[in-house]
Amino acid sequence: MSLSRKGIEDLKLYVPGRPIDEVKKQYGIDDVIKLASNENPLGASPAAVRAIIEAASNVNMYPDPISAKLCERLSKNLNVQPSQIMVSNGMDNVLLLITEAFVNEGDEVLTCAPSFDTYRISTIVMGGKFKTVPLKNHRFDLNALADAITEKTKMVFVCNPNNPTGTIVTKAEVEEFMAKIPTHVIVVFDEAYYEFVDNTEYAQGMKYVHENRNVIVGRTFSKLYGLAGTRVGYAIAPAHIMNILKRTLAPFPVNILGQAAALAAADDFEFIENTLKLNRAGKEYLMAEFAKLGFDSSDANGNFIWTDTHRDGRELEQKLLQRGIIIRAGYLWGFDTHLRVSIGTLEQCERLIKTLKEIL
Ligand SMILES: Cc1ncc(COP(=O)(O)O)c(C=O)c1O
After folding, report:
1. CATH code assigned at 283
2. 86 lies in a domain?
3. Residue 70 Cα, ligand 1 centroid: separation in angstroms?
4. What tens digit of pLDDT does each residue of 89-126 get?
5. Do 190 and 290 reside in the same domain of the chain?
6. Are residues 86 and 74 in the same domain?
7. What is the pLDDT of residue 262?
8. 131 touches 123 (CB < 8 A)
9. How many whole angstroms separate alpha carbon 112 and alpha carbon 135?
């Protein structure tokens, strides 16, 4: 008899980007760059690093269980009550708490494929049935998603911008979609990359939080603020949803260093501006260079680019690895000729293009 809960044995493990040290060791290269996990190439917000150092002497104490100061700070920009925000140990953990709070065994959870893999894991862990409809032209197909909703559907994840493709759904598309959502369904908008979006048609899920719909918006300090290593993510929801969601929170989910870092980073406007500027420049450069190489890139709205190389992506990934560049090949998501490349510093981007030219 199996000791595991139903479904766990068949649950495929999440495949993360490879760590720099591992690649250094395997290939005997000192100078390895990672453009694989959509981290901030500028590093962390310097204000956050100072705050971590200051907070370090307090780590003998348990942290504030609800990250109250951070909720207060975030609530100002979001125009919600601090109690409508739940901060936890990275948005990955927030996503799991969301399914813990709402997904019963046998409930259907819908999203498009490919998208962020944690939706699958979080659903199956709870005994939910994970169902996907394909992206259309690498974009979330909200019409197909709405059509796939049944009376068994409990939750729909909308990743906007979508990881791995970087594409967005627009205000008009989401408005039409939300009009079709029945009251037994919760829509989760994963907006891990929303700060990077320049397109004015981009739809933020906050509109529906303010309308008191059955929605949750997820965000993170991992990307724009350069705090992936501190693991701080959060959910925003109307009170009737948040009151349920918060019950799943662990006693002290965000450590003292993470709370201090996120609070300081939220006001580090210089770092935010520098990150956005660098991302725009890197995106423009890579999009143009990929086009010159004959690659077809999807509309990139995050800090990464999804591009069709029209060649074996796995082989390219390997050859780049051997030359000290970690990217992610699209086969992981069922796209054999695609690559997902995080936008690095200009120097890193130039090295990537130079190396690709050598390989090709
Ligand atoms: C779409 C998406 N959602 C959530 C996350 C998780 O973010 P966090 O680092 O806060 O766990 C990521 C991280 O890559 C992501 O790409």
Report:
1. 3.90.1150.10
2. yes
3. 19
4. 999 999 999 999 999 999 999 999 999 999 999 999 99
5. no
6. yes
7. 98
8. no
9. 6
Q: Tell me, what DSSP letter sits at residue 231?
A: -
- Number of domains the chain is built from: 2
Give the per-residue pLDDT at 1.
75
Under-70 pLDDT residues of the chain = none
Alpha helices in the chain, H assignment, sequence order: 20-27, 46-55, 68-78, 90-102, 118-125, 142-148, 171-179, 206-210, 239-245, 256-266, 269-292, 313-322, 346-359
What sign results for the dihedral spanned by CA atoms 144, 167, 332, 40? negative
The CA-based diameter of the chain, rounded to the nearest angstrom, is 57
Closest-CA residue to 283 (of 199, 220, 201, 360): 199
283 located within any domain: yes
Both tokens assigned to 118: 């944690």
Determine the residue of 74, 86, 91, 197 to mutate for testing ligand 1's pocket, defined as the one with the most ligand atoms within 8 A of the Cβ atom.
Answer: 91
Q: Is residue 133 one of the residues assigned to a domain? A: yes
Residue 13 lies in a domain: no
Atom of ligand 1 nearest to the CA of 302: 16
User: Considering 221, 249, 266, which residue would you say is the last residue of a domain?
Assistant: 266
Residues 126 and 188 in one domain: yes
**What is the Å distance from ligand 1's center to 91 Cα?**
6
Structural domain including 159 reads 46-266
* One domain for residues 254 and 289: no
Q: Is 222 a pocket residue for ligand 1 (Cβ < 6 Å)?
A: yes
> Looking at the whole model, is its pTM more than 0.85?
yes
Q: Summarize pLDDT for 194-241 with one digit per residue, the tens.
A: 999 999 999 999 999 999 999 999 999 999 999 999 999 999 999 999
- Indicate which residue's Cα is closest to atom 16 of ligand 1: 163
pLDDT at 115: 98
